Amino acid sequence: MKDEQSPLVIIVSNRGPFSFQQEEDGTFSHQRGQGGLVTALAGVIDHYDVLWVAAALSEDDEKWAIAHDDQPQEIEGTRLQLVRLPKEAYDLYYNVIANPLLWFIHHQMWNIPRKPDIDKSTWAAWHDGYKTINRVIAEAVAPHVNAAERQVVVLPQDYHLYLFPYFLRGLIDNPKVQIQPFIHIPWPGPDSWRLLPAEMRTPIFDSLLNADRIGFQTERDAFNFVQTCRFHLPDAHSRGSRNSIEYQGRKVHAASYPISIDVDKLQTLTEEAETRLLKSRLAGIASDNKIILRVDRIEPSKNILRGLQAFRELLETKPQYRGKVQMLMLLVPSRMDVEEYQSYLQAVMAEAGMINAEFSDSFWEPVRIIVGNNYPRAIAAFQLYDVLLVNPIADGMNLVAKEGALVNERNGVLILSENAGAVYELGEHALVINPFDIHSTALAMDQALKMSAAERETRADAMRRQVLDANVRMWFRRQLDDAVAAIRNAEKPKKATKKATPSN
Ligand code: F6P
Known about the structure:
Elements: E1 8-13, E2 18-22, E3 28-32, H1 36-42, E4 49-55, H2 59-67, E5 73-75, E6 78-83, H3 87-106, H4 120-147, E7 152-156, H5 164-169, E8 177-179, H6 198-208, E9 213-216, H7 219-232, E10 244-247, E11 250-256, H8 263-271, H9 273-288, E12 290-297, H10 304-317, E13 325-332, H11 339-359, E14 367-371, H12 375-384, E15 387-390, H13 399-407, E16 413-417, H14 423-426, E17 431-433, H15 438-449, H16 453-469, H17 472-491
Parallel strand pairs: 1-4, 1-7, 4-6, 7-8, 9-11, 12-13, 12-15, 13-14, 15-16, 16-17
Antiparallel strand pairs: 2-3, 5-6, 10-11
Helix pairs in contact: 3-4, 9-12, 10-11, 10-15, 13-16
This protein binds 6-O-phosphono-beta-D-fructofuranose.
């Protein structure tokens, strides 16, 4: 599809596909960015004419941008531009508004009698951080849109960039542009948004409705968005539709595009030398024990703590598993400048330590935690688990569930939260739990560990097929097809409407 006729696709995200490090000789090395968004997008863009615009997140990222005159550069086949942003504004945008305020609303994690407090400093972060950064990023993208003499599809990603569509609209004059945000996280119902003052939430909804179509992970999220706009914007009407909103003379679509994984790439990665080496190291643990695995960012919404509490209950109530089952947790540090994340990590470490102190013996440690961002290690572990625990409080999709289902070699059982988007595709073949229900999670662990080989195989096969059938390339392709069709539609000369002849 990379030809003159194909649209220019501009992906805009907070975190880019690569982070950079300047070496002693002045050259730059790069590392893949972490997280579901990057994992999904990095796998699909090679067939398209893509420019990826992202924030420069570190001093070395900034040096890389300066070294290239703030212009896009090709890295491993991806044309990337990193935008240098005012540091203080970035801190307010990322650490005060996006995470935690918006993230916690989306995942319904505020303990509302106590938090959030929207005080003077939050308002300052809104004006001088969130708005500023969204505007500056829109200013970096606009020249590319205006210079393109063809169709342009702009794909802003996630909750960091809610005000971006509004700012971009004001800066562009290319009529062949389609602005199509994708929201990777769950969109809660209208009441959750009452936590935000109207002067914050209204600009967010109004800006998103400056887009042409908004992508969500599930139909439930798209429906919640439509309802949210109806409740909070007096001028927004859905006219009975579950997936579109009419607002200020425009019709904006809310569509569901369930994200998935790059099947080919992941399968290739299992064959790489580093993955094999890491697998052989982990295989030692997996031969002595049955493995209950979890792979997550250190993130309160992932519900790591309740997972540990369920494992504790399992060891307490079913002593036959002592010495035979290990919970292996691969945890990726995340948002460590946010207080809620720091204290969550401390609580996780404390709970794991208490379980180990109470139950371990000379040959066996019940919980093993490995902290770090190492994708090959995660893939190695996926191949080896007997049970995969995915129990988020709320999650847009959860790609760990799909990655595990694809590459696991032991017909491992998936324990899956009913609040993860992945439940709509994998739930039928997983053990589905309520993430707050520690007791039922412990029972599900027991059920998974003693499940017959035949049942495990049937479930694992079905999940694998499901993942193979819904490749992430389709997720991306569907969004672009819809965008291009919408541009073509808008270009079509409108049929003259027949003047009604008065009947009498
Ligand atoms: O969808 C959620 C997301 O935006 C994903 O990219 C990823 O799971 C995570 O959040 C990344 O967060 P951060 O960039 O703050 O580390």
